[in-house]
Design a protein that fits this description.
By secondary structure, the protein is α/β, with parallel strands linked by helices. It contains eleven helices and 13 strands. The longest helix is centred in the last third of the chain and has 16 residues, at 284-299.
C-alpha cells in the first residue's frame, strides 16, 4: 500500500561514482566537487533540494569522497581569517554551504552495484517516508522549480514521480525511457519503463532525467530486483515493476521543458559553465562581451 502523501523533507543524493569521464581531474578530487563557475556542482544540487523544502539530505558516498563532507562542514580557521580581514562577501560564500540544510548525513555505498543499490542504501535513514532522489549530473535552473512540482504531483496522486524530458529519437538510447498516458497539463501516467532501449525499440522519446520523488515502497521492490543492464541494480527496473503492477504504484511523470544543464560529460560540463557564467550578475556582462569577441575573432575567421 502507498503511504499517505505528506510534505517531503528527505532528499537522497547518490555521489559514489568514480567520475572516470573527467580523468585525470577526478583522480584525487570527487567529480561532484568540480566547480561550475565558482561553486562545486554538488552545492547546486543541495540548494535545489533545500529550495523545494527538503532540508534533511543524505549523500550516498564511496571512497575518496571526504571533500564532500568537508565542503558542507565548518572551516573555522578560514572563517576567522576572513572575519579578521573584514571580507564579508567571501565569508558569506564560505559559510553558505554549512547553512543550507537542517542536517546533512552520509552513508557509504561500498560495492558499486548501480543506482538502485545506492538508493537502497538510504532505506535505514529514510524509513517509510516518501523522499526525493537527485542525481548530481543534472543541474536544474532554480527559476524552473521542477522538484517542487514533482512533490505537488506526488501529493495529488500518491505513488512515485519521475522527471521526463522529450529528447531526439536518436538520443533516447542514452536514457531510461518511459511509455506514458496523458493525464493533463505537464503530467503523464507512466505505463512502462525501459533502461537505455536499443535503437528503434524505445516506446517513446520521453527520457527519464535525474530527479525522482519516490514512495518508500520502492525499497521493498529494490530488495528483490535482480541486476539488469550493465550487471547493476537499476532503479528504472524497480520503478517499472511499480508502474505495471495493478496493486502497486502508481508512477507518474512530470514533463519538464525548463532549463537543465547536463554536467555528466566534459562537453555538457563546459556548456553548463558557460551558460551559468553568462547569467551571473557579477560576471555575466563582461563574460558575454569577451565570449562574443572570442567567437567573432577566433571561431568565425575563415581558415586559410
Amino acid at each position: 500500500m502507498n503511504s499517505t502523501p505528506h510534505r517531503i523533507t528527505k532528499a537522497v543524493v547518490p555521489v559514489a561514482g568514480l567520475g572516470t569521464r573527467f580523468l585525470p581531474a577526478t583522480k584525487a578530487t570527487p567529480k561532484e566537487m568540480l566547480p561550475v563557475v565558482d561553486k562545486p556542482a554538488i552545492q547546486y544540487v543541495v540548494e535545489e533540494a533545500v529550495s523545494a523544502g527538503m532540508t534533511d539530505v543524505l549523500m550516498v558516498t564511496g571512497r575518496n569522497k571526504r571533500p564532500l563532507e568537508d565542503h558542507f562542514d565548518r572551516n573555522y580557521e578560514l572563517e576567522e581569517t576572513l572575519a579578521r580581514k573584514g571580507d564579508r562577501d567571501k565569508l558569506a560564500r564560505v559559510c553558505a554551504p554549512t547553512e543550507l540544510a537542517t542536517s546533512i548525513h552520509y552513508v557509504r555505498q561500498g560495492d558499486p552495484k548501480g543506482l538502485g543499490h545506492a538508493v537502497l542504501c538510504a532505506a535505514p535513514h529514510v524509513g517509510r517516508e516518501p523522499f526525493a532522489v537527485l542525481l548530481g549530473d543534472d543541474l536544474i535552473d532554480p527559476r524552473d522549480p521542477l522538484l517542487a512540482r514533482m512533490a505537488e504531483v506526488r501529493a495529488r496522486y500518491g505513488g512515485s514521480v519521475v522527471a521526463l524530458m522529450e529528447v531526439d529519437p536518436d538520443q533516447i538510447h542514452l536514457y531510461g525511457c518511459a511509455a506514458v498516458r496523458p493525464t493533463g497539463g505537464d503530467t503523464v501516467r507512466v505505463t512502462d519503463l525501459v533502461e537505455k532501449p536499443a535503437p528503434g525499440e524505445a516506446p517513446s522519446n520521453y527520457a527519464v532525467i535525474g530527479r525522482y520523488v519516490l514512495d518508500p515502497e520502492i525499497f521493498d521492490v529494490l530488495r528483490r530486483t535482480a541486476p539488469g543492464r550493465g550487471g547493476e541494480i537499476q532503479l528504472t527496473d524497480a520503478l517499472r515493476e511499480l508502474a505495471v503492477r495493478e496493486d502497486a504504484g502508481p508512477v507518474h511523470g512530470v514533463v519538464f521543458s525548463g532549463r537543465r544543464y547536463d554536467t555528466g560529460d566534459r562537453l555538457g560540463f563546459l556548456q553548463a559553465t558557460v551558460r551559468l557564467a553568462c547569467e551571473r550578475e557579477d560576471l555575466g556582462r563582461d563574460f558575454r562581451a569577451w565570449l562574443g569577441e572570442y567567437v567573432q575573432q577566433e571561431l568565425l575567421v575563415p581558415v586559410g
